Please model this.
Amino acid sequence: MSAAQPGALARPAARPRAGAAPRAGAARALLPRIGLGLYLLFLLVPIYWLVNMSLKTNFEISGGMTLWPQNPTLENYRRIFTDSSWYGGYINSLTYVLLNMAISLAVALPAAYAFSRYRFLGDKHLFFWLLSNRMAPPAVFALPFFQLYSAVGLFDTPWAVALAHCVFNVPLAVWILEGFMSGVPREIDEMAAIDGWSFPAFFVRIFMPLVAGGIGVAAFFCFMFSWVELLLARTLTTVNAKPIVATMTRTVSAAGMDWGLLAAAGVLTILPGIVVIWFVRNHIARGFALGRV
Amino acid sequence: MAKPRDDRAWVLVLPVLLLVAFSALIPMMTVVNYSVQDSFGNNQFFWNGTGWFRELLDPATELGGRFFDALWRTLLFSALCLLIEIPLGIAVALTLPRRGWGVAVSLVVLALPLLIPWNVVGTIWQVFARRDIGLLGAAVNGLGIDYNYAQDPLAAWVTVVAMDVWHWTSLVVLLCYAGLRAIPDAYYQAAKVDGAGAWAVFRAIQLPKLRRVLTIAVLLRFMDSFMIYTEPFVVTGGGPGNATTFLSIDLVKLALGQFDLGKAAAMSIVYNLIILTVCWVFFATTTRGQSEAVQGTAQGAGR
Model:
């Protein structure tokens, strides 16, 4: 797909690069397109290799190089969907990711509003302190989290992972939402107050729809960072809440690595990401700039 | 522009404060607590004062030597990642189409690596770069270059850096792309009237306008590459030898592998302080120069 892109992309791009004469411009415009195509190819090839392997038998994988499966098989996927320790991992992962998203947004929304609308005692310090948690390596937290969540009886539950991931997701959500909320003029708040709206009603019925884009972006980032994290998720769970990413670390059996199964599990962990990207594809660029271009 | 002062806003911040206090402050206090104590098992702890810190910051000791080795490795890794990813990210962002169906396709492909769980990223590259079953490993060896990341430190480094470039350059691209999209067409038209070439446009218009998003990009990329754990752990496990043992890999070994609580805690604190200091200094210096840069841009565009 992406190999065909350079030529196809050349047409819409010819306009903004102003200045060059038409004929020389065509050649000069083509070169960056080819570069872009090659770069996108570089991004796709490792993923293609994973998909390719997931459709092979282990015999074929270790037998030699084949660029596509000679006898395509869905056996690896069948094993994942019929073994509860595998598909249970997906359910566990999705549970704590969604929990984390809900908690992070619920606490970050009012806080971001406060930061975007008011000055208050210690606001700047608080804001930087919140962000500084985003800079704490998860490795630092692994051991104390283990002890803390064991002590309060949350160990090996989705809640433990969901709360632990709040350390980096809540500051990020506050930061993103603050950026989007600052773009909404304050006159709207004042007008609503004059019209007799109570603050909670105003916030939910008027203000939140105005920053819906920002909420979507924040939710996207919470999902993303919670879904991709392994260290804390693995440290805080053993059996009942074990996430899929941790299950994947045990595909070494007596017969050696089960590469096909590992590849199939990997492909399945990419799918939620693709679904999420598809939903936000039109806001992706602004979203990644965290609303502050 | 001035925001009204109202200390009742604290009520709105309270939930965040309580939550982060529970999930960050309590663990952090635990770490500080351990860092000044020594344990001989059996949950018996002894006061050790600044002993661990002195040992950690003295390269002559075993702990200190190990710490500084890992620190230099991590700094080198972060530097390499920034040096490759930031220019490459800007370059790719400049070549992205601004309209048409290519936009959505390119953006979706670009965002794809960012949403893959980090250990799966590790798995992908572990497999992809293997010389027996991986496309990359087999291809490179087919070219006559002896490449085996499990045994050769240089090959391990190349693999880990290539993986990070693959994984994270897209973040820089997407940030820069958003920044470029925000530049009004009038700027380009003014440059066209002045007969500015592509390089002049980049220097005078695009780069200054990207300052804000580039600040975010450099900060995020520094933090995350300096904290990297999962991906190199899956691919190389910190080896061969200790060649790719970065700070966080070493820390997890110390804390969860050897249960050396005091040493691990002291290392955690120093590690975290390094990130905070670098980020704060970078943030302070870039935002201080920002007002001047904006003026410079306005003049440059007006000329």
Chain A has a mean pLDDT of 81. Chain A touches chain B through 105 residues (CB under 8 Å). The CA atoms of residues 82 and 88 of chain A lie 10 Å apart. Chain A has two domains: 2-54, 82-288.
